[in-house]
Amino acid sequence: MGLPEPPEAGASALPQGTFVGETVIVTGGGTGLGKAMAVEFARLGAAVAILSRKEEHRAAGVAAVEAVGARALGVACDIRQPDAVATAFDAVESALGPPGVLVNNAAGNFPVPAEDMSPNAWRTVVDIVLNGTFHCAREFARRQIAAGAPGSIINIGASYAWTGGPGFAHSAAAKAGVKNMTETLAVEWAPYGIRVNCLVPGLMPHEDEAAAIRGVPERGQREAARAPAGRVGQPRELGWAATFLASPYAAYISGHTLVVDGANWQRRAMLMPEFTPIREQLGKGPFEA
After folding, report:
1. For strand 151-156 and strand 101-104, is the pairing parallel, antiparallel, or unpaired?
2. How far is CA 53 from the centre of its chain?
3. Which residues of 2-40 are buried (b: 16+ CB within 10 A; e: fewer)?
4. Per-position b or e across 209-234, b if 16+ CB within 10 A of its CB
5. How far is 95 from 25, CA to CA, in rounded Å?
6. What would the pLDDT profile of 141-164 be if each residue is shown by its tens digit?
C-alpha cells in the first residue's frame, strides 16, 4: 500500500496569512524545489524574492509567485560572491522590506567518479553549496542582529551528508558541511532570536531537473518501487515542510535537520545487492589518467 498521497496543491496545514507582512528570500528559487518552496510561502501571504544568476530562472520564479497572488522580486546574484550577496539583500530590502526568512536552496551538482573530477568541478560545487550558503546566512544574520529582529534560516541539505555519496563526492562533502554549519549557527544565533534549520528532500521529480541528473542510468524508471513509501515525493511536500519550519509554530525548533523522503535514506536490506562500482553505474569506461 505504501504511504498515502499528499493533499492537493494549494492546501496548507498553516493558517492563511501566516506570512503576511513577511519578506522571504529563496536562493535558486526560480526552478524545481526552490520554486515549489517559494510558491508555498507566497500562498501564505509572504512577499518573495528570487535570487538567481540566470534571468530566465528569476522570471520563472517571479511568475510562479505572482500567479498565486503574492508580490515577487527577481534579483541577480552569484552567492559565491559576498559583495554580490550584500547588494542583493539591499535590493530586496528596498523593494519588499527587510527579509525575515532565508531559504538557502541554491546548489550545483552533477554525477562524476572522484578520480575523473577536476579541481575546478570540486571548487565550483563546494563554493556554491557550502560557501554560498554561509555567505547568505551570514549576511542575513548580521542584518537581523543589527536591527534587533528575529529570523529564520532554512538550509537545504542532502541525505548523503550522513552516508557519503558515491558519484557525488563534491556535493556530499559540501552538504555535510551545510548540516554541521546549521547546528553551529543555531547555537550561536539563538540568543539573537534567529533559528537555523536544515531541510533534506528525498526523490521529488520535477520538470527543472538538470540534464546531468536526468541522465543517470535508470533515472525515471520504477522510482516509486525504489522507496519504502511506494511513491516519490511531490515538490509541494517540501514547500509545506519549509513553511512550517519557518513559521511561529516551529518557534522552539532550531538546529534540526528534517528529512522529507518517506524513510528512503534509512533503508537497509538483510542482504545487500551485489556491489556495482560507480563507474559502471554511470556507464563510464575504464579510467585513463
Report:
1. parallel
2. 16
3. eeeeeeeeeebebeeebbeebbbbbbbbbbbbbbbbbbb
4. beeeeeeeeeeeeeeeeebebebbbb
5. 12
6. 999 999 999 999 999 999 999 999
Measured in residues, the chain has a length of 289
Pair 135, 80: CB distance under 8 Å: yes
Q: What residues does 195 pair with on adjacent strands?
A: 152
Look up residue 250 and give its DSSP letter. G
User: Residues with Cβ < 8 Å from 68, sequence gap 6 or more?
Assistant: 39, 42, 43
Per DSSP, the residues of 28-71 read: TTTSHHHHHHHHHHHHTT-EEEEEES-HHHHHHHHHHHHHTT--
pTM of the model: 0.94
Q: Which three cell numbers stand for residue 36?
A: 515549489
pLDDT, one tens digit per residue, over 92-113 is 999 999 999 999 999 999 999 9
Q: Contact, 226 vs 189, CB < 8 A?
A: no
Which of 76, 104, 103 has its CA nearest to residue 90? 76
Taking the C-alpha atoms of residue 210 and residue 55, their distance in angstroms, rounded to an integer, is: 17
Nine-digit cell at 139?
549576511
Cα dihedral 214, 215, 221, 226 sign: negative
pLDDT of residue 92: 98
Look up cell 555535510; give the residue.
176
d(CA 6, CA 286): 44
Amino acid residing at 44:
L
- Give the number of C-alpha atoms closer than 13 A to the C-alpha of residue 68, restricted to the C-beta side: 24
- The CATH code belonging to domain 23-281 is 3.40.50.720
pLDDT of residue 246: 98
Strands 151-156 and 194-201 come out as parallel
Grid cell in block for residue 136? 547568505
Residues labelled catalytic:
160
